[in-house]
Each structure stands twice: as structure tokens, then as C-alpha cells.
Write a structure and sequence with these properties.
It is found in: Cytoplasm. Forms a complex with KhpA. A probable RNA chaperone. Forms a complex with KhpA which binds to cellular RNA and controls its expression. Plays a role in peptidoglycan (PG) homeostasis and cell length regulation. Residues 5-55 are annotated as: Jag_N domain. 39% of the residues lie in helices and 27% in strands. It is an alpha+beta fold. It folds into three domains: 3-56, Defensin A-like; 60-137, K homology (KH) domain (GMP Synthetase, Chain A, domain 3); 141-205, R3H-like domain (Ribosomal Protein S8, Chain: A, domain 1), CATH 3.30.1370.50. The strands form three sheets. Strands 1-3-2 form a three-stranded antiparallel β-sheet, with helices on one face. The protein has a three-stranded mixed β-sheet with strand order 4-5-6. A three-stranded antiparallel β-sheet has the order 7-9-8. Helix 2 packs antiparallel against helix 4 (109-124) and helix 5 (139-161) crosses helix 6 (172-181).
């Protein structure tokens, strides 16, 4: 948490000094007047400057990271969380440590639920939409390989039986993998159905 104590002849002057040091705007901080100061009398007594304490509000990524750390700790998991990708619109958290299987859950269900909640926290503190990806022990790369094989296998099945095949609910970026893999298929097409967080992909014969 970034915090600055600044002084000035007025509250506004002290606040502006603190904002300059924090490189922040007024809506990004919390302001506390520590001392309202005192003007000198007839120039004979020394004046006392205004003192303010200005604290930067946690940003979207910082809030998401803190939330994630608390959840992981409460699950009894000792882990290291690193921000490896942050471009303003997307953020990926690499997670390493023991008991990653517990964090991931069956077919990634626990991880996807935690990712969804972490994304909600991030967007509560952001003026624009942020996509959050949790990646424990490179799980997402392995999951992508699994989804590619699954898409190809279920596309073949949909073609053989001549009926649509529905997949399990997935987060948006996983559904996108399925759509991308089958985008050029001459035999099937894909559509997403349902509401978040239970939206899923349907593979149907053309």
C-alpha cells in the first residue's frame, strides 16, 4: 500500500503535493487531514502547515492478487503467486507450490470457479473490463492441448451421429479455443449457449 504524508499552506496545496508524489489523481486515493494547520498571528507567531495523509487505493490487479492470496491461504495451500502478464486488459497469475491438484480440482472446476471470482474482484476496482487467467504449474498450456484433442474428437462424433454434442461449461477463453480449432471445419460448426458462469459450447453438424 502506497502512502504519502505531505504538507502545505492549505489542504488543497498539501493534497496536490501528495498526488504528485504518488503520480495519482484524486479519485484514486483516500485523503486524511492529519493537522489542519494554524496561521501565524500578525506575523509574530510561527504558522503551522496543514498536514495530510494520502493513501493510494488498491488497483484492480492488486485487489485481485490480494483476494487470490487470501483464498489460497484459507485453502491450506502454500503457494507463490506471480503476475506474469499485465497489459491493462488481461492479467495472468502464475501459481506454484504444493497441492496444486487441490487448487485445480476435477477437470479444472475449482480453478475456473476461483478464476471467475478473482475476475469479479478485479473488475469491481477497474473502470474497464479485465480478463483474469490463473495458471497453476502451467496448467493452462496442458489444458489447451486437452481441449484441442477434445474438440477434434467430439466434432468427429457429432458428424458420425448427425446430432449436436454439448461440452461442459467453460470460461470464455476455453470456449474460444474450441471455436478456433473447429472454425475451418467443413463438417461442423460451433455455438456458445447458456449464461455465465455456466456457458458452454455446442458442436453441431453443418
Amino acid at each position: 500500500m502506497r502512502q504519502v504524508t505531505a504538507t502545505g499552506s492549505t489542504v488543497e496545496e498539501a493534497v496536490q503535493s501528495a498526488l504528485a508524489q504518488l503520480e495519482a489523481t484524486e479519485d484514486q486515493v483516500e485523503i486524511k487531514v492529519v493537522d489542519e494547520g494554524k496561521k501565524g498571528l500578525f506575523g509574530l507567531f510561527r504558522s503551522r502547515p496543514v498536514v495530510v495523509e494520502v493513501t493510494a487505493k488498491p488497483g484492480a490487479v492488486e485487489s485481485a492478487e490480494q483476494f487470490l492470496q487470501n483464498i489460497v491461504k484459507n485453502m491450506g495451500i502454500e503457494a507463490t503467486i506471480d503476475i506474469v502478464d499485465k497489459d491493462g486488459r488481461n492479467v495472468m497469475f502464475n501459481i506454484s507450490g504444493e497441492k496444486m491438484g487441490l487448487l485445480i480440482g476435477k477437470r479444472g472446476q475449482t480453478l475456473n470457479a476461483l478464476q471467475y471470482l478473482t475476475q469479479l474482484v478485479a473488475n469491481r476496482h477497474s473502470s474497464h473490463y479485465i480478463r483474469v487467467i490463473l495458471n497453476p504449474e502451467d496448467y493452462r498450456d496442458r489444458r489447451k492441448e486437452t481441449l484441442v484433442r477434445l474438440a477434434e474428437r467430439l466434432a468427429s462424433r457429432a458428424t458420425q451421429i448427425g446430432e449436436p454434442v454439448s461440452l461442459e461449461p467453460m470460461p470464455n477463453y476455453e470456449r474460444k479455443i474450441i471455436h478456433t480449432v473447429l472454425a475451418e471445419s467443413e463438417d461442423v460448426e460451433t455455438v456458445s449457449k447458456g449464461e455465465e458462469p455456466n456457458r458452454y459450447v455446442v458442436i453441431q453438424p453443418k
